[in-house]
Amino acid sequence: MSATLAIAGGKPLRAKGWHPWPEYGEAERTALRRVLDTRNWGGFPSPNAEAGELSAEFARYVGSRFAVPCTNGTLSLTLALQAARVTPGAEVITTAYTFVGTASAIVAAGCIPVLVDVRPDTYCIDPDAVAAARTERTEAVMPVHLGCAMADMDALTEFCARRGLLLVEDCAHAHGAQWRERGAGSIGALGSFSMQSTKLLTAGEGGMLTTSDPTVEQRLQSLVNCGRKEKGYDGFPERMLGHNARMTEWQAAVLREQLRRLPEQHERRAARIDRFEKAIQGVPGLRPAPRDARVTRRTAYQYILRYDARGFAGASRDDVIRALQAEGVPCAGRFYVPLNEDPLFAFDPLTNAAIRAGVDYSKQVFPIARRAAYHESIWLPHPLFLGPETDVRDLADAFAKVQAGADSIPRRDADAG
């Protein structure tokens, strides 16, 4: 291994690619041919054949009574609030450190996102900040299970129950995670999952809602199916303005096979992550993602390391990210920024109803989320932990190499953080 960093003119530690994602094989080919031969490709009738089977299988996997597929994991959050009959204009408390879809889904449901800061250990929503942000207009709380951590479901469940608030889990990163042996998505009143290309369970796009409330499930079935009240899904009084949000049979068939792969993939990632954490124990300036004993099955959509510049000769996190990328490691620092600093959460009154309602997000500050976004977090995508054990060695060696040569990392001016 060359001691000279690649960013300083040396040879990259890793020139070849990493484990490909998504994984697939003959099972997925057979599933697609099965759908092709039926000539029944779309989402209608709803739920269609493959989607119906997927719903039952996913509900069993998560531990909820019901699962309802839909087009994506952003609209699913909107559907969750609508199915639970949250009042338009109500406040929904959520984390400031998440993808824009969490907040835009709240706006699309006619509600107002109330952003709060995160805990410094997990980067998940801070229950104390949730309690402080509650007002008479609050009707729901929407925690996000982030990266490889889960929000504190003990504290959030107790708080929402005591205050009569709806609890909706954003599980876009957490397919298969468990809190005290209960699956993510089965703890709150509803759970929402994304099946987008990079997610732990994917068909390119897609979403899933979980609930154990039969009335909510029937409303969801109506909402995804243009507001129709089909037989068996008509046990509620309302007629709701719905969406055409049905999942296609192609997606459902692929997801059924991907779901069968998921338990083994979780085991493989967990074993590789254990080895990686042991391998970097001696690297100054790095802290492994913390483990909460209440998380009885940890998943890792993104493995998040804590970075301390004092261990890297004072180099900024972003400079180190560039050095790691030059060594061949795909990683990110600003995977998310605080939502009120994210250009995708545009303060446009014609498309953002929260701005029309008079909320001024621009003056809000979330110090822990900002520190994570601009200084502290290093995000490693989950396929890095699906390949052979030599990949783990290369990954750990790249961090060690960059730390040892930190004095030679080119510095850039400090950025907005």
Morphology call: globular
Order of helices and strands: HHEHEHEHEHEEEEEHHEEEHHHEH
Q: Which regions are unreliable across 5 or more consecutive residues at pLDDT < 50?
A: none
Sheet with most strands: strand arrangement: 1-9-8-5-4-2-3
The CATH homologous superfamily of the largest domain is termed Type I PLP-dependent aspartate aminotransferase-like (Major domain)
Mean pLDDT: 97
Give the CATH topology of the largest domain. Aspartate Aminotransferase, domain 2
Helix content bin:
25-40%
CATH architecture of the largest domain: 3-Layer(aba) Sandwich
Q: State the CATH class of the largest domain.
A: Alpha Beta
> Domains counted in the coordinates: how many?
2
List its salient traits.
Aspartate Aminotransferase, domain 2; three-stranded antiparallel sheet; alpha/beta; 2 domains; seven-stranded mixed sheet; single chain; 417 residues; 12 helices
What does this structure look like?
The chain is an alpha/beta fold. It has 2 domains: 233 residues, 3-Layer(aba) Sandwich (Aspartate Aminotransferase, domain 2); 146 residues, Aspartate Aminotransferase, domain 1, CATH 3.90.1150.10. Helices cover 35% and strands 13% of the residues. It contains 12 helices and 13 strands. Helix 6 links the parallel strand 4 and strand 5.
Summarize the structure.
With 417 residues, the chain is an alpha/beta fold.
